[in-house]
């Protein structure tokens, strides 16, 4: 996610290279400020004063954005395990971090060191938000491939684009994936405006699965225009940080990766 003001600098970013498994989108004690509040390790605000501090921070951030001519709306903020650092959920944009005085914004990842594996401190907070968003989706607005061997052991949500080669590779393994007890739910995520009409035509087709198959074979999809959720689903992807397809999430909202083989997918789901 990039703000609309290019001269907004990144305060402290640990950037990771985009893995080649997805089709990318086409872009001593000092006197404390009254806003400063030491954040608890995780979770929601535990006291009224903390909640008030969070609300003041939201107000401060909105004022700062307006002053800098940045078109961003704060939906929610949550304290992180890092003292005086908050996770900020923005409408239509990937989440960012903000210092408790509202003076600094951090785009990217904040990594915890000390363990064998690196940990992004915002992952649990983002996953919690994702879980709620996925639960609110209507199955009739998705393309759903049920597990084929009895009750599903797992459900995955896949942001997909019929023009994406890595989505084609994943789609080729659908029968093997569903045979392993995994239900697959496709969410439309056209990687650019030029791909929007095709994805809308697929979602407006009487048989979406057949239309998707037709599209990945390079054949045009014709369907009458209809009210469809493609724009909303694209916006959902932006909100949670999707920047390429496929983007695979479990039902708890955790990001599993881009393209994965069936065995890799099972391994990550059962981790």
Q: What's the arrangement of secondary structure elements?
A:
Layout: E1 23-24, H1 48-67, E2 74-79, E3 85-90, E4 96-99, E5 105-106, E6 111-112, E7 119-120, H2 123-135, E8 143-145, E9 154-160, H3 165-172, H4 174-179, E10 182-188, H5 196-204, H6 208-216, H7 230-240, E11 244-245, E12 247-250, E13 255-257, H8 262-269
Parallel strand pairs: 9-10
Antiparallel strand pairs: 1-11, 2-3, 3-4, 4-5, 6-7, 8-10, 9-12, 12-13
Helix pairs in contact: 5-6
Quick summary of this structure?
With 271 residues, the protein is α+β, with helices and mostly antiparallel strands.
Residue fraction in strands: 15-25%
CATH architecture group name of the largest domain: 3-Layer(aba) Sandwich
Strand order of the largest sheet: 8-10-9-12-13
- Return the average pLDDT rounded to an integer: 86
- Using the coordinates shown, work out and report the CATH topology of the largest domain: Glutaredoxin
First-last Cα distance? 29 Å
Order of helices and strands: EHEEEEEEHEEHHEHHHEEEH
Number of strands: 13
Rg for CA atoms: 20 Å
State the shape.
Answer: globular
Give the low-pLDDT segments: 4-19, 28-43
- CATH superfamily caption of the largest domain: Glutaredoxin
Q: What is the number of helical segments per DSSP (H or I, 4+ residues)? A: 8
Helicity level: 25-40%
Instruction: Provide the structure class.
Output: alpha+beta
Count of the domains: 2
């Amino acid at each position: 996610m990039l703000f609309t003001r290019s001269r907004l600098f990144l305060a402290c970013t640990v950037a990771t290279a985009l893995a080649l498994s997805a089709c990318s989108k086409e872009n001593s004690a000092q006197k404390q400020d009254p806003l400063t509040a030491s954040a608890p390790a995780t979770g929601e605000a535990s006291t009224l004063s903390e909640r008030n501090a969070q609300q003041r921070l939201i107000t401060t951030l909105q004022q700062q954005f307006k002053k800098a001519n940045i078109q961003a709306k704060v939906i929610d903020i949550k304290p992180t395990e890092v003292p005086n650092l908050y996770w900020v959920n923005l409408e239509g944009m990937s989440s960012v971090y903000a210092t408790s005085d509202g003076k600094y914004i951090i785009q990217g990842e904040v990594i915890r060191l000390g363990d064998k594996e690196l940990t992004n401190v915002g992952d649990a907070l983002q996953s919690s938000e994702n879980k709620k968003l996925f639960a609110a989706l209507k199955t009739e607005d998705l393309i759903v491939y049920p597990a084929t061997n009895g009750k599903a052991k797992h459900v995955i949500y896949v942001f997909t684009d019929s023009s994406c080669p890595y989505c084609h590779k994943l789609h080729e393994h659908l029968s093997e994936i569903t045979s392993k007890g995994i239900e697959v739910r496709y969410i439309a995520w056209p990687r650019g405006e030029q791909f929007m009409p095709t994805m809308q035509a697929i979602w407006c087709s009487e048989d979406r699965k057949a239309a998707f198959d037709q599209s990945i074979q390079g054949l045009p999809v014709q369907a009458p225009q209809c009210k469809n959720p493609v724009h909303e689903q694209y916006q959902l992807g932006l909100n949670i940080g999707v920047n390429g397809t496929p983007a695979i999430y479990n039902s708890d909202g955790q990001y599993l990766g881009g393209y994965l083989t069936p065995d890799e997918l099972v391994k990550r789901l059962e981790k």
